[in-house]
């Protein structure tokens, strides 16, 4: 009678062990799914894209509002806005190129110091050095991305005002388009960055409207007397 009991206990033990192994494998499979995405990986390019688009939109819209406050001619607004687009895109590209190139030089200098330290300690770090070189920032790519983002934001108020003859309607349309675009840019940045949508959109919207209002008011105050046709 003892032998059958021993075999029965062994079978139960096998079932329990098999169940435990299956549960462990399920947990291992489900574990990566529970990990949240690291939004900080998007931080660098997201910052440049959102900043460039917002810069282009606010700069050109404010410039057009300022010119429109003292000049009702649609051509003057469009020429001023286009000049702002070209100048701003070039400025963003050059600034980003210089900034990223400086960062690249700093990282390369640090890599050289680490390499010298490893060589003095007779430590093989070729694999690590290769990975670091692949992760170095690209100044040209950063410059192109900043210029493109600025241009995308800047072209919106230009297109909004290009085909409207009535001055007051044109000014209202520029403000309306800028308002909607600022809300979209703020929401897009918050969704990609994993931050609250309403708070981000409100912050971007208020800042952009303040810039346009200040530009409009100061330009009208200073230049209305001498530029009215």
TrEMBL record:
It holds the Pfam family VIT1. It is found in: Vacuole membrane. It catalyses: Fe(2+)(in) = Fe(2+)(out). Residues 1-11 have a biased composition (Polar residues). GO terms for molecular function: iron ion sequestering activity; iron ion transmembrane transporter activity; manganese ion transmembrane transporter activity. Vacuolar Fe(2+) uptake transporter. Keywords: Ion transport, Iron, Iron transport, Membrane, Transmembrane, Transmembrane helix, Transport, Vacuole. This is Vacuolar iron transporter. GO terms for biological process: intracellular manganese ion homeostasis. GO terms for cellular component: vacuolar membrane. Residues 13-28, 112-134 have a biased composition (Basic and acidic residues). Residues 1-34, 112-136 are annotated as: Disordered. It comes from the Eukaryota. It is a multi-pass membrane protein. The keyword Ion transport applies. Belongs to the CCC1 family. The chain crosses the membrane at residues 76-94, 141-164, 171-192, 204-223. It comes from Herrania umbratica.
């Amino acid at each position: 009678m003892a032998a059958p009991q021993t075999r029965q206990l062994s079978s139960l033990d096998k079932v329990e062990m098999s169940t435990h192994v299956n549960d462990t494998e399920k947990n291992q499979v489900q574990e990566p799914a529970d990990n949240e995405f690291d939004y900080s990986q998007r931080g660098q390019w997201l910052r440049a894209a959102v900043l460039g688009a917002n810069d282009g939109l606010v700069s050109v819209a404010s410039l057009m509002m300022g010119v429109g406050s003292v000049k009702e001619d649609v051509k003057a607004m469009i020429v001023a806005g286009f000049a702002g687009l070209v100048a701003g895109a070039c400025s963003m590209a050059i600034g980003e190129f210089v900034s990223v190139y400086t960062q690249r030089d700093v990282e390369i200098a640090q890599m050289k110091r680490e390499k010298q330290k490893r060589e003095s300690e007779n430590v093989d770090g070729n694999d690590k050095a290769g990975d670091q070189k692949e992760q170095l920032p690209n100044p040209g790519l950063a410059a192109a991305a900043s210029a493109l983002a600025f241009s995308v934001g800047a072209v919106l108020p230009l297109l909004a005002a290009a085909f409207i003859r009535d001055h007051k309607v044109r000014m209202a349309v520029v403000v309306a388009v800028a308002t909607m675009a600022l809300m979209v840019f703020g929401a897009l940045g918050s969704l990609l960055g994993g931050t609250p949508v309403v708070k981000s959109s409100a912050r971007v919207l208020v800042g952009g409207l303040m810039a346009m209002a200040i530009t409009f008011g100061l330009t009208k105050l200073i230049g209305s007397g001498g530029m009215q046709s």
